[in-house]
Specification:
The chain is built from twelve helices and 13 strands. The chain is an alpha/beta fold. It has a single domain, classed as NAD(P)-binding Rossmann-like Domain (Rossmann fold), CATH 3.40.50. The strands form four sheets. Strands 3-2-1-4-5-6-11 form a seven-stranded parallel sheet, sandwiched between helices. The protein has a two-stranded parallel sheet with strand order 7-10. The radius of gyration is 20 Å and the shape is globular. The two termini are about 40 Å apart. Bound molecules: nicotinamide-adenine-dinucleotide and uridine-5'-diphosphate-glucuronic acid. The site of nicotinamide-adenine-dinucleotide has 23 residues, from α1.
Length: about 350
């Protein structure tokens, strides 16, 4: 076991991290050190012989983070504040964690010559050209490509964009270290992964999670499904299992093809408006989960400012060009939108009913 490559997963207790940890341990080709302030989603993995879990804040200044980087073969950095509500309510916290603290991780990797897989976001693409020109983005599909698309953020007064800007600047720092041949990195731009263990239901704990959790909560409790600004934005959803498959191929980095590359990981075919997502989820709930007497949630509209607060602006449309992941990694998604949504709903319904019975 001691000759297995050692992977350091920072933020391993999150949605992507927990699913990636489970997959790496199942494959048995790596020893995994999982670091997170919250280990709840890693339950069931903690006893694994190849896993070492550190309940630790990467902001600790006790030198332990640098030691961990020094003692591992690969660093996968997933740590971030990744819920849009926080970009509006806590912009400085988002900047400090997503840029300043993540930069420290990068610099430890430079110092100790360690490869890093850095999680960025599809939000770095910002808004579509069509949207900026005042055209209907639905009329002009314009897939985002890693190495050619412009990155178009909204005005500074819309501080939602501090998340994407922090992620974008970190990408540019990685690139600059690469130009000096001082760092081997791969950047991942996830496009709306969903699946078991995503976020939490708003009824379970305070906060404002991502849209799937809000709509799932509404279906379980009969409260309104709220469409921000009419639900006219578009997203393309990818099953977490398909996403983890791509990430494992990036970790493996066959022939070094991932060296200093950026990869979109997404499923353009699984695009829907948010309004369409709400109706799809309500239809699937009626078809597969609703019991007689269960309340039926209504679908209502709210403004972005009402739902998130002042400073919110939306990404109008995100279509990933995934030709690079296909050509360099031989990767492609295998789940269509209905199966991605239905399987994730089933996870939350089963968990909700188990808890109701206990
Ligand atoms: P997540 O919020 O579920 O996971 C982030 C993890 O980081 C959490 O477990 C959290 O506890 C941990 N963390 C936060 N601050 C920490 C600290 N100071 N010390 C240690 N751990 C800390 O998010 P996710 O969806 O798993 O996303 C993982 C990464 O991928 C993030 O960088 C996010 O920006 C990016 N991303 C995710 C998606 C997606 O579809 N899920 C899309 C775009 C980008
Ligand atoms: C989020 C986060 O920014 C990151 O995790 C990541 O960059 C991105 O997901 C991703 O997963 O790729 P976003 O998709 O905007 O970005 O986050 P959601 O909260 O899921 O919102 C999606 C859309 O649903 C937005 O248009 C939002 O306004 C809308 N929404 C959200 C509703 O209409 N109703 C709700 O109850 C919640």
């Amino acid at each position: 076991m001691s000759d297995l490559p050692k992977v350091l997963l920072l933020g391993a207790g999150g949605f992507i991290g927990a699913n990636l940890t489970e997959r790496l341990l199942a494959e048995g080709r790596h020893r995994v050190t999982a670091v997170d302030i919250d280990g709840e989603k890693l339950e069931g993995q903690l006893g694994h012989a190849h896993l070492s879990f550190h309940r630790q804040d990467i902001r600790d200044r006790d030198g332990s983070l640098e030691e961990l980087v020094r003692d591992h073969d690969l660093v996968v950095d997933l740590v971030a504040m990744a819920n849009p509500s926080l970009y509006v309510t806590n912009p400085l916290d988002v900047f400090h964690l997503n840029f300043t603290e993540n930069l420290r991780i990068v610099e430890h990797c430079v110092q100790h010559s360690k490869r890093i897989v850095q999680f960025s976001t599809c939000e770095v693409y910002g808004r579509t050209v069509a949207g900026v020109l005042g055209e209907d983005p639905a009329e002009r599909p314009c897939p985002f490509h890693e190495d050619s698309s412009p990155l178009i953020m909204g005005p500074v007064r819309n501080h939602r964009w501090i998340y994407a800007s922090a992620k974008q600047l970190l990408e540019r720092v990685l690139h600059a270290y690469g130009l000096e041949d001082r760092l081997d990195y791969t950047i991942v731009r996830p496009f709306n992964f969903i699946g078991p263990r995503i976020d939490y239901l708003p009824s379970e704990k305070s906060g404002n999670p991502r849209v799937f959790s809000h709509f799932m909560n509404a279906l379980l409790y009969g409260t309104p499904m709220k469409l921000v600004d009419g639900g006219r934005s578009y997203r393309a959803y990818t099953h977490i299992d398909d996403a983890v498959e791509a990430i494992v191929r990036i970790v493996d980095n066959p022939g070094g093809v991932c060296r200093r590359e950026i990869f979109n990981i997404g499923t353009p075919e699984n695009e829907t408006s948010i309004r369409g997502l709400a109706h799809l989820m309500r239809e699937l709930f009626d078809e597969h989960f609703r019991c007689p007497g269960d309340p039926v949630p209504e679908i209502v509209e709210v403004s972005g400012e009402e739902f998130y607060g002042r400073g919110y602006e939306d990404c109008d449309r995100r279509i990933p060009d995934v030709s690079k992941a296909r050509d360099l990694l031989g990767w492609g998604s295998r789940h269509d939108l209905r199966s991605v949504v239905l399987e994730t709903m089933r996870y939350f319904v089963d968990r909700h009913r188990r808890r109701a019975e206990s």
